[in-house]
Structures are given as C-alpha cells and as structure tokens.
Amino acid sequence: xxxxxxxxxxxxxxxxxxxxxxxxxxxxxxxxxxxxxxxxxxxxxxxxxxxxxxxxxxxxxxxxxxxxxxxxxxxxxxxxxxxxxxxxxxxxxxxxxxxxxxxxxxxxxxxxxxxxxxxxxxxxxxxxxxxxxxxxxxxxxxxxxxxxxxxxxxxxxxxxxxxxxxxxxxxxxxxxxxxxxxxxxxxxxxxxxxxxxxxxxxxxxxxxxxxxxxxxxxxxxxxxxxxxxxxxxxxxxxxxxxxxxxxxxxxxxxxxxxxxxxxxxxxxxxxxxxxxxxxxxxxxxxxxxxxxxxxxxxxxxxxxxxxxxxxxxxxxxxxxxxxxxxxxxxxxxxxxxxxxxxxxxxxxxxxxxxxxxxxxxxxxxxxxxxxxxxxxxxxxxxxxxxxxxxxxxxxxxxxxxxxxxxxxxxxxxxxxxxxxxxxxxxxxxxxxxxxxxxxxxxxxxxxxxxxxxxxxxxxx
Amino acid sequence: xxxxxxxxxxxxxxxxxxxxxxxxxxxxxxxxxxxxxxxxxxxxxxxxxxxxxxxxxxxxxxxxxxxxxxxxxxxxxxxxxxxxxxxxxxxxxxxxxxxxxxxxxxxxxxxxxxxxxxxxxxxxxxxxxxxxxxxxxxxxxxxxxxxxxxxxxxxxxxxxxxxxxxxxxxxxxxxxxxxxxxxxxxxxxxxxxxxxxxxxxxxxxxxxxxxxxxxxxxxxxxxxxxxxxxxxxxxxxxxxxxxxxxxxxxxxxxxxxxxxxxxxxxxxxxxxxxxxxxxxxxxxxxxxxxxxxxxxxxxxxxxxxxxxxxxxxxxxxxxxxxxxxxxxxxxxxxxxxxxxxxxxxxxxxxxxxxxxxxxxxxxxxxxxxxxxxxxxxxxxxxxxxxxxxxxxxxxxxxxxxxxxxxxxxxxxxxxxxxxxxxxxxxxxxxxxxxxxxxxxxxxxxxxxxxxxxxxxxxxx
Amino acid sequence: xxxxxxxxxxxxxxxxxxxxxxxxxxxxxxxxxxxxxxxxxxxxxxxxxxxxxxxxxxxxxxxxxxxxxxxxxxxxxxxxxxxxxxxxxxxxxxxxxxxxxxxxxxxxxxxxxxxxxxxxxxxxxxxxxxxxxxxxxxxxxxxxxxxxxxxxxxxxxxxxxxxxxxxxxxxxxxxxxxxxxxxxxxxxxxxxxxxxxxxxxxxxxxxxxxxxxxxxxxxxxxxxxxxxxxxxxxxxxxxxxxxxxxxxxxxxxxxxxxxxxxxxxxxxxxxxxxxxxxxxxxxxxxxxxxxxxxxxxxxxxxxxxxxxxxxxxxxxxxxxxxxxxxxxxxxxxxxxxxxxxxxxxxxxxxxxxxxxxxxxxxxxxxxxxxxxxxxxxxxxxxxxxxxxxxxxxxxxxxxxxxxxxxxxxxxxxxxxxxxxxxxxxxxxxxxxxxxxxxxxxxxxxxxxxxxxxxxxxxxx
Amino acid sequence: xxxxxxxxxxxxxxxxxxxxxxxxxxxxxxxxxxxxxxxxxxxxxxxxxxxxxxxxxxxxxxxxxxxxxxxxxxxxxxxxxxxxxxxxxxxxxxxxxxxxxxxxxxxxxxxxxxxxxxxxxxxxxxxxxxxxxxxxxxxxxxxxxxxxxxxxxxxxxxxxxxxxxxxxxxxxxxxxxxxxxxxxxxxxxxxxxxxxxxxxxxxxxxxxxxxxxxxxxxxxxxxxxxxxxxxxxxxxxxxxxxxxxxxxxxxxxxxxxxxxxxxxxxxxxxxxxxxxxxxxxxxxxxxxxxxxxxxxxxxxxxxxxxxxxxxxxxxxxxxxxxxxxxxxxxxxxxxxxxxxxxxxxxxxxxxxxxxxxxxxxxxxxxxxxxxxxxxxxxxxxxxxxxxxxxxxxxxxxxxxxxxxxxxxxxxxxxxxxxxxxxxxxxxxxxxxxxxxxxxxxxxxxxxxxxxxxxxxxxxx
Lengths: 460, 460, 460, 460
Hints:
Four copies of one chain form a homotetramer. The longest helix of chain A has 16 residues, at 126-141. Chain A has three domains: 3-161, Malonyl-CoA decarboxylase, oligemerization domain (Butyryl-CoA Dehydrogenase, subunit A, domain 3, Up-down Bundle); 165-297, Aminopeptidase; 304-459, 3-Layer(aba) Sandwich (Aminopeptidase). Chain A is globular, with a radius of gyration of 27 Å. Chain A has a five-stranded mixed β-sheet with strand order 1-2-3-4-5, with helices on one face. In chain A, strands 6-7 form a two-stranded antiparallel sheet. In chain A, strands 8-9 form a two-stranded antiparallel ribbon. Chain A has 24 helices and nine strands. By secondary structure, chain A is α+β, with helices and mostly antiparallel strands. At the A-B interface, helix 3, helix 6, helix 7, helix 10 and helix 14 of A face helix 1, helix 3, helix 6, helix 7 and helix 10 of B.
C-alpha cells in the first residue's frame, strides 16, 4: 500500500527540521524529538490530522534503548505545567477561592504532556506505543524518581482509557488465533505452560481461559485467568496441571478453580483489572453451569519463603516466635535435623524438601498461617496475593503444605499453596471487614488454629 | 436471562437504603441518589464489581426530566474538590513550589466527580448514560452557569475517551443495519432525508456515507459525512439531491463533494471529530479512486440572512456599507423594489425570493462574500461553518447565489450555498495563515472581488 | 478493481469466436452461446479455471428476455443425453442386467447439461444466475412443455445444492441489513408490509422473523416466516398486524403464531424448505421461551371463494349440498337476501361483505369447514395451505369467519382465516394419519361439527 | 443444552424398534440400522424434520470399525435401484425412445441411496459424516470392488456439493485459529512441519498459505497450498524451508513458489480442487503484488526412484537405455563405482547419496528428464505430480538434482526436485497441447537436451 498523501505531505514542507523523520538514516536527536513533539502540540498538529502523530509513533517504535532516558527527561523538563502560570493561579485562588479560580487552577496544573499523549494516540498503534513508553518509564523510575511526574500523567490517562467499561471479556479456547495463544504461553508466570500440548489441555472443555481485551489493542490480552472445572477444591497442583488427566464433563463439576491470574502488560501496572475479571467470570460461569457451588483459587504464597528465611533485626519470625510456634513439633524437628534448638533445626531443614515434606507438613501449615495472617505491611497483610484476594472479598479457606512440589515453588514458599474462596453472599461483608480491620477472613476450620497462633505470636 | 447474582446480592443487605433502587416504585430522592453515588465511590463499590454501577445507570435511565436539575446540583455541590484540601495544597505549593507540591496540588483539584463518572462507566451502557447526562447538563447550563464545573469534568473525561485513536471509521451503505440507517435519517440536519427511498439513493455507488463510531457505543454514530462522487463541483443542491439522478460510475468521477456533515451526539458537543473525519475520508477516497481531483464541500452559510437583516446599532451591514456595496446595482434595485434608497430597496426585497433570484443573484454573491470575509466574531470569522472549514485548512472556492431554493435555506441564507475546497498540498499552509492572520483564504477568482469589497466596506 | 489476468486472457486467443463476449456490442447469437457452452464443457474450460464460467454468467446476466427461449431450446436439443449412447446402454443392460451395465446405463442418461450447470456454478454469482435461469424456464414451461427435461436436471442439482443441511437459519431483526429487510417487504405476499414503520413493528421483541439463507446467496432469503408472540391464539388479523399494538414482554407470551410464510425464490419452486423452517423455529423458540405452550398459524384459505362461487358441472358445492348445509340458516338467508332458495340467496350475498359478516358468520364457518375437509384434489385436500400444514403434521384447530376484513381476503376467502396447530407430541402421528387416510386431523371442537357436515355432504 | 423436543420425541413412539438408538447400550445390528435408514427415507422422515437424520448421524459417529463393512454392504444390496423398475423403464425406452421414457429411465436408475445421503445431510455434522463414510468405503473398495456402485452415488453427490462455486478461499496465517493450524501440521505431507516454530516461519509475511473451505465443514480445510515469496526460483529445499531465513519484504519478491499442495480429506478423493486453488491464488497474488513475475512450483518426483530401480521385464530403464543415457559419464561412473558396466555401476551407487551427489548430479538430471518425459502410463506421463501440473497448463522448467537432501526424498527420487512454471499467457495453449499430444511442455533450456535423450531412448 502506498503511503497516504497526508503522510507524504509532511515531507513537502522543508523548513521545519522534519528531515529528522528519515528514520533509515541516523536516529533523531533528543532536541529534534522535542521539536517534533512541540509541533504535534501546536495547531499544525491539528491541521495535519493524524499525520504528525504517525510520525512520532514511527520514531518511538524505532527508538533504541539508550535514547529513551533522554526522551523521558525531555517529557519531564519541557512538557510539564508552566510554573509561572501555576503560581499565578495559586495566588488567584488564594485571594478569592471559588469556582472560577478553581477551574483556572485546575487548568494550570494540567501538563501539556497529557495533551501530547492524547495526540500521540491519534495514530494507529498509538495506544500500544504509549503502553510501551510507560514500560520504559517504569524501568527507569528507580534511578530517576523525579520522572514520577510523567508517570502520574500516564496513569491518569490510562485510568480513563482502560476503564473496565471499555474492556471486552473474551473466552479463549483452541479456536482462538495462534497469535493470542502464543501470548498466553509467554505471559503465563504462575504455572508455566510447557508447549502447545500443555496449552491445548488447558483449553479443553473442563478448563477455561478468559481474558480482558481493549478495543485499541486487539492482539494484546491485558489480563487472563485460567479456570479448572472440577469436583472438589484441589489441594495440590498435580490435580490441576496433569496433561493426561481425563476430561470432565463440565456439567458434572461442582467447583471452579481460578488457578492462574496473569497481568500481561507491564506498562499498565497499577491499573487494576483482576477484581473485575474474577467477578465477571464467576457470574458468567454461574449462569452457564448452575451446578457450580465453589469458586475458589489455587494460589501461590510468594513472600513466604523469603520472610521465613529472614534473620535480620526486623525479621518477623524471631527465634522466640519460631520456638513458640514449633512447640508441638520439637521432638520431630530435633530428630530429623539433629539440632537441639528447634528454630535452628528448622532453618537447617529449609533446603531439604523431602525431609520437610515427609515429616513437617503440619509445621509448614502452621508457619504459613502465621505468615499470612500476622506478618504485615503497614496496616494490611504482607503477602501480595493474599492482599489481592482478601481485598476482593474472598476468605482464606485452606493451606496446602504439599501444594506444589516444583523447584520454583519450593524456593518461593516451600511448596505451600493456598485456596481462597469467593462466596457470593459474603463478598461484600468480607471486603468491608478486611478493609476496616485489616484482619484476614478465615474459614471455620482455620479460625481456631489461627487464634492459638495469634496468642503464641504476641507472646513470642 | 436471569439477573446475575452480583446484582441480586445488592438487595440482600437491607440496612443501607438500597430499597431506593426499587425503580418500579417511586423515584429515588436526590438525597438517596447522592447516597448511592457516594457508596459507589467507596470501597464497597469496588467489592461489588460492576453491580453498584449498574444500579446507578438503571436509576439514571429511568429518571424523569424534573429530577435532573437536583441530581446535577448535587454533583456540583457534593462531588467537587474539597476546598480545605485545595487550600492546604495551594499554601504548600506557594511555600515550596516543586514536583512534590505540584503533584499534591494536582490531586487536590481533581473532583471526586471524575472518579464517580469513571465508576458509572463500569456498567454496561454506562458510556451512553454519561453522554445523556451531559445532554441534560448542557441544556441546564444556560440557567445554571455554575454547573460548568461539572461540565469541565465531563469534558475532560470525554476528551480522553473519545480520542480519535479509539474511533472506528465505518462506511455506511445499504447493507448496514436498519438500526443505524434510521439514525442517519434522524440526525441529518443539513439536507433532510425524505424517506427510505431518498436514503437509498444517497447510499448508491456514487454517493458515500462515512461515520465515526466508538466501541462502547456500537449503535450510535458520533458524526457522519455524506459524500457525492461527481463530475465537477456542483453549484446547486439539485445536482446533489435529485433522487432520480442517474448513477455515475465512481471511476468516472473527478470530484468528491462533502455535502453534509452532522454531529449526532449533543452530549459530545465540543469534542471535535469533524476535522479528522474529513481528512480520513479524503485519504481513503483518494486511494480507492485515484481519478478524484477535487475535494470540496457544498456548505450552508447559516448566519448570513440573520446578519443581513440586522438593523440594530451594531449591525455589520450599515446603510452606508450596503449602499456602497450595492453601487453597481442601484438601478436594478430601484426598479424592482420601487424604492429610491438601494439599501432600503434591498431590505424590502428580502422576502421576495423570486425577484431576488431573477434580478439580484450578483448582489447576493457580493453580500455573501462581504459577510463571510468581513463580519467577525472576535479575531476570527463570524460564520460557524466557514470557521470550521477554514480552520481545517480549506479555502473558500465559490459562492453560489442560487445554491438551494428551499424555504429553509432562504430563511437562513437567501439560498446562498458555498464551496470550500481542500487542496492536499495547501491544507497546512492555509490552516496556519488563517489561524495567524484571521484572514479568509480565497480562490483566485474571489480574491480580486474581495479586495474591492474590503475597500468599500472600510469606507462605509 | 482491474479484471484479473485469467479473465483478460480469454481475449488473447482470437480464433474461437470469443469476440462474442464483447457484451457492449450486440448480444451473442444462440449459435455463439452454444459454442461458448460447449467450450466450457471441454478441457479448455478446465484449463482456464473459472474464467470461461465467468463469461457465460456475464452473458446470461445481460441477456434480454427474448433471447431466453432460444437458449433454453438449445439446452434441450444439444445438451441432453446422447440417444445412441443411451440405446446402446439400454441394450447392454437388457442383455445382461448387473452392476456394470447399470453403472453404464446411469452414466448414459446423465445430461451434459448437468455438468454444464455445475461448471457455470464455478463463477461468482453462478448460483444466482442458475436460479434466475430456472425462473425463465418455469415461465416458459407452459408453452414449451418439452423443456421439462431441462427442468428435471436443474431440479436434480438444486435438490442437492439447497439441501437443508447447507442452509443457515437467521433471525432477522431491526439490526439486519436494510438490503435484506427491503427484500422482506418485496417478498411478503400473505400480509403485505406497508412501509418501514410497519416492518419495524413486525421486528419488535414480541414479533420474530426467521429466514433460511444459502451460503452462495448471502443477500437472498430463500424463505421466511413471521411469528407473533402473544397471549392466546388470535382469531382476527387486527390482533396480529396492528402497528400501534403495545409490545408484549416475550416472557409473558404463551403462543407463537406463524402468521406469514413466504417462499422468496420462484426459481426454487418445488425445492421445499417450509417444513424444516417451521420445525426449527419451533424448537428454537421453545428453548428460548419455555413459557410458550401453543405453536399455531394464522392462515389464509386461498381456494375457498373461488370454489364456492363455482357453478359449473363439477362444482363441489352443488345447489343440493348448499341447501343441505344451509338448512339451519334458511330463514336468515331468505330474510337478508330476499330470495326464496337459500342456495341462490347465498350466492346473491357473496358480494355484500357487511351483510354476510353481520348475519352469516356461522354459515361461513360451516362452508369453510366443508371446503377444507371435503373438497378434494385427487386423494388429498384441495386447499394448498391446508395441504402444506396437514402434511407437516399440524391439525386444523379453528375456523375464524371474521378473520381478515381486507378486500383481498374477501375476494380470496370471504375473510375466513384458520388456525392450524402444531402439537409436538402429535406431529408424527398426525402426519402419518393424514398421509395414509387423506383425512384432515381436527381439533375436538371441530370434530362433531365436521361429522354432521360430512353426512349432509354425502347426502347432497 | 437440552436435547430439543423433536429429538426426544423419537423415543416416545415405542413400536418401531427405535430403542436401537440407545447408543450407550450395545451397538445397533445391521438389520436395525437398515430399518432406521429405511424409515428416514419414508414420509416419517419428513414429518420429523431433522430428528431422524440426527439419530442416523449419531449412530454413524459411534460405529466401530468392524461394523462398517456390514453397513456398506447393506447400502449396496438394499438401497440400490429397483431392478424390476429399471427393466420396465429399459423396455419402455426401447419401444419408444423419447423425452418421456428417458425421464422415466433416468428416475428408475437413481438409487434410493442418493436420497438417503441427502437426508443424512439434514443433520448437523451430516456432511462430515458422509465424507467419513466415503473414507471407510474407499478403504474397503479393494476387497469389495462391487461396492463401487455405492461410491458412484457418493461421488455424484460430492461433485455437486463440493463445486468450486461453493468453496471459500481463505488466507491462513498466524491469526488463524489454532484448531485450523493444527490440521495443517497433520495434513502436510510434502515437506513435514516440524513443530509450531516451523509452522510460524511458514506463515510470515514472505510465506503464504491458502486453503479451500466448504461452508458445511468450517473447521476442515479441503486442500491447502503453501507459497514462498522469493527472489528467483529456488533450486533446493533449504532456501524454502530454513526456519531462520531472514524475512523478505514481499514487495521485493519476483517469484511465488508453490512448494506444497495437500489434499486434506481422503473421503473427497477424485473431487479435484487443486487446479482451481493454484489459479485463484495466482490471480490474487498477482493483484496484491504486481512485482511478481514467476509463478512456479518446487515439486517432488514421487515415482522416479522406484522406476529407476526396477529390473523386471517391463522396467522402462533397460540396461541398454541406461548405458546409452550414461554414455557421457561412463568414466566417472566406473571410477566411483568400481564396476565396469556403467548401468551396473549406477545401480550399485543408488544407495550412496554422498557419492552420487558429489559426482553424478548431471547423471541424475539426465535420468530424471528421461523419466518425466518418456516413461508413460497409457497415453500420458507416468509421474502423478507431473501429470497434475502439466494438465493444468504448466511447463517443466528445470530439474534440480540436489533439490532436497532429506532421507525421505532420497528414497523417493534420489533428492531430485523439479520446478514447473505457470505462465499466464501460455496456460491454455500448454494445456491443450499436452492433452492432445501427450507431450511434456518444456522450457527452452530443457528442449535440446530432451531431444537428444529421446533419440537415445528410442535407440535403447
């Protein structure tokens, strides 16, 4: 296809440094890019429709890694609100606070960046490029924290654009485009997909996969969840991931297990979809298969191992607490570890999966329960997966000390996996209780045990 | 279909006044609606996924006209930024202007309304309801100008949401859903569509219709343009609208005439799409039919008649100016009007279309040219259609004094219609010249005449 | 779009009279068309892929009415089985009947026409042209009965091609393309559609329209049925066709009324779809709306008026029979007609709708029942609509003497309309009883009356 | 989904042996199946719409391999034309040959089987089951040649149903459903696809894959072709199949290479699509990429090795011919084989790929040319791939003695691959010359060599 004339037109006006767009030659300098962006922001940008936006996107697409910091700094320095204008609006508001001065103030603090981003989005592929731009930004942020001003603007826009009301829920199965399936394989990070045969099993009738898509990114899942339709809530990964498992008639299933939830776009970090995805899928499955009684997860406990191994001053598992928690199992630990002090013995065993699994499954369960309910980050729980599901209104149903025997999972949580359960009628109450009190909602079977542990912990 | 359980759930918690949602009964009071909106803004809103948003949308859908002002005032009063927080942020910024205080300031001025609107959008049909909400707001604004604070927030959101990058250009033809075609008939306001047969003629091979759609409003065109593929640029409406005109082979056409552009959503006023639509359609047609040489409009001159009839103190057409402009036609006017003073004579003739058309076509052309180029609103032209096309980079090509003989058009512009022409290579230059100087870009044939008129006008 | 080279190629070989394809010039002679068809049948046709078929279709599309008979005769004369080959095969079979000679015999009787038709179908639009071809043929058949040989071949092919397994059932509603809706308006012949507003009412939630489509004719419905979802089975057209009737919530309906079934393609006469359409729609509606209890029609009685008016020797309603049937109403008839003989009196009244409706509704019911059950064509019922539904397994439920007061319906059946009912559990039994015995299955309420009439009729 | 009532209905009539349909129990006996088929053929079949057809399809789907022969024999014995009726029609035609008796004769020879197949097709999935039925039939045919009567009927139907006019050409790429892509992997038999990565490379921008689909079999490609867009016509497989080859900009390509054509449905053997597929794809590519000059194949020579190895009495390569053909290479062959007689020497070398490739590439080319042009099957060429392309109007362009070094290809053709070229302007002439004379059309470069070989061969 030929380039449209609106596009070619750009090269017809020579006196504006547009030769920088000759991408085949050397990359544009920071200064040139800034010039291009400024032009896009002026009326000239309007006159040319989407042509200039296309050029900016083309430059961004071909920009090398080392050119990004310069570009991001330019956005920070030259595309922020005008300090003079802000100060004037501030003074005016101070003098006479009211609707008029407030509107002026609001306008004065809006960055030209926001308009720049909106205009970049005029181009085909613009949305994707802006998501990629934020990826670069997020990676740079640690070293250049002042760039969070740029990030604030991107986040503001993305929160508007990626509103759940604009997202489309799609059921992904073996009739889906290979292009999309390939991305599931790439993005799956909870239970890695081992080749197309594994993938195919995960898309059979008794497995489901749902993803949110945005209309402007038709080939890019934003988040997806894998669901297993089963009888009962599984306590180990083998039941879920066995490629050769017989296929269950979905009408026979009583449980829908959310066994993997993956955010796909790093550039959309902080724009949350997971809550909506779980609830929508639950609603839809409930309608399709009225036989489903349980909506549960099979979730990792990502911070458990690291936390338990900590020995620094602020380590939550102090020797005292450990000793108290292990009181019932002292003998066993001494025996299998050969150490006198159970706390020390335990630590010595943490690299011996077989021993722990065989003799100390109960101990793992106790420690994981303590970790999930008592180790805190600020006013809430420390574990990010727990935080996600508990905030959404689920409760902690069960701890499975032998949940997943893979190497990766041992390193992360000594193989412990847990089930959170979403009970339709309690979701809202759970959510409010959790948000108000910070306390973890527990199943009946865990409540008593938890109470005992809590006392020991305080004492420890 | 049954209501999903997330939805039904809402009715299970009795202690929060949610019985107001029993729409079949009496409508909710303002206070109750406020309560519902506040709830949607809290964490409870999050816990329930989209359920609460659906309820708000349901209430809005069924709300009677007289309930709207109360609701809009509530948005103004109770959902704006917190004045105390704003003032604190203002003071903080004043003391120490910098990135940190700026971010705080920016956050402090963002209304909770914006988040409310974003959450309403979680619901199916939410986007449409928000567009309808703004319709109510715009209609109320004249009487309640303070509500422009609410409008500012809606506009801010809509500018993000209805970004051209998210719009889809669709070619509408006789294979399009009747649902959509019916809306064209309803929204067409330039050249009314008289029944389905008329519509069908406008969708034949030598006529085209293109519209922008937003993915969240699949059944609602946002704006559409009707195009006629012709030989030459037409100087009267009959050539365009004759239902029985023979169908031209599009390959034979040399001109694409944009003869009707209609914004369909009153609630999106001020969010502009027209510029992009014309340019995109031009690009696409150019590719499809390389034989097209002219891209022109056949446009109304909406403010002409009213302006010419004005006799108040600030009327642009003063008796002196009129006399000067009519100098060449004095005799004719005297003769057909029977009045001595040509200015007076002209006014006397303005209700006699046949006389004017037969004897004074040249006079109409002169007066229309004066109106379009010399009557101003602030620094730019007064006529809104002229403003639109000239800002987009078109030039004024020709004035057709006998352009449209319908009653409506006589009342609006004494039947005068004009052609604006989009020349690919000049669009940007024209735009810049027009924006910088405020001067109307004219075709060669009009330039000389215009110069003469300008001098007369200044003198007058 | 340019013509593809395979197409252009055809003009590159000059020595085969292909210049006849220059359609812009004079039409090809019969001889030339025959040559073209023969060429399509040879290996050359194969070599050129679909090019030659396209040319034949192009010629057929542009062929004038008066050229058709010659073309059809050519198909009859020159494209039939080779008589010599047939006779040889006949002799061979006679001598030694067996699988081998049977296969030879079968091959010998297959016309080259069939292969010609199959090859014409290679072209885009070929299927449509063949349907149109059969239209011409059917119209010609009365005058040229020997052409039924050609028709036999077309029917054989169409029975294979338009097998129900290849048809797609589509729900047509207000979101359907105007292109399709326009065709409904054109093809509706039972209850004419009066403009788009009428059409729109027929596509609301409590009205349904379903059609069969063939993949090769995506813009051409083959047959469609209009269904009204109602409470109760209607006894007059007003209930069905009132454009301003309130819309019923489909969930509230207990009856699905098939009030109009239309075959759209004259060229497919004799290839039946109606049976499948009714049964499929019944199945689908039953699933969607379990509240539906009655599946009934509201049907015309097309042959009733003509039959009743007959006075020839073979007229089924003899004066004797009429007198006997009218015995209970003698006085009324005499009174309103002023004639002594009730048979004569009745005939005198047949042009006075108002009188008949006011005084003789019962008489109409009696006569219509006699007509439907006792007037025969061969071994089965005479009325074609009755034949259709009774063969499909419906029974005659009710006769509505005031069913439709329009002029057309008076002329056809004195306004009488009837309901046939499809009862799921009896469809098969009804079908078999009707096919075996030729007797009309009746509702309980009609059985007694029918018995009385039958005796009177035999006596008369 | 629940079974529709039309379906359930079947079980409500107990007296017809329909309990045989209880598939969960024992399979139906041949006799029962025959009963079911006969019922489908009667009016009862009509009454029940598609219900009975569904049952037959359900039985066929679940039928075990050993039940098939009985079923096929039943079709042969009980579903053929009625011999008595045929003989009557034969006699009638003999007495008075004419249109009437011919139509009777034609009807008498049509098997009830054909109607049975058409009715089976009423069921969803019916078409697929009939294709599978023919698979079973074709596999049985060798042992039961009398079943060709059944096959004749299926072929007749399939020729009507799978007419190219009903097929849809689809471009298959990485956005196609995994379901379809998986089938390409399974059906590819020319150049096996090694995993998804290999497949993906074959679907990049400079590779294309096109397939024909039938609307009733949306998930089943009928035939597909793989095309490589390249610079020049390749002489070895590495150029085509290298997974790591750089991707060429399609606009830069001058040659489209059809390197693999695969029929996917064994049950459609004899219903040919390949010719149409190649020509359609050529037309489409030509339009999309005007830079393409060569349309060529890279084809196997499947019968070469087997023919050359033959030593039986009728072996085409007699020792005399071999010696004559090898005359120019005697010394080399003697040297590398150590045998005195070059014919014997050659045979000894046929299991030493490396030696042959290094020293005897020219010899292979000579022998392959002799094989392709001089070894005959009846009046035409022996090699099936040659027959296919030459009949379609291609010519033999080049012989590539080192075309494909894989083990499979050595076994089939000593690694020789050839290019056939489709020249738009010569396709028809080539086709006719080949069909008329049986002579292979050759490129200029091969003509001279071929002439020499021909003389040697005749002498030999």
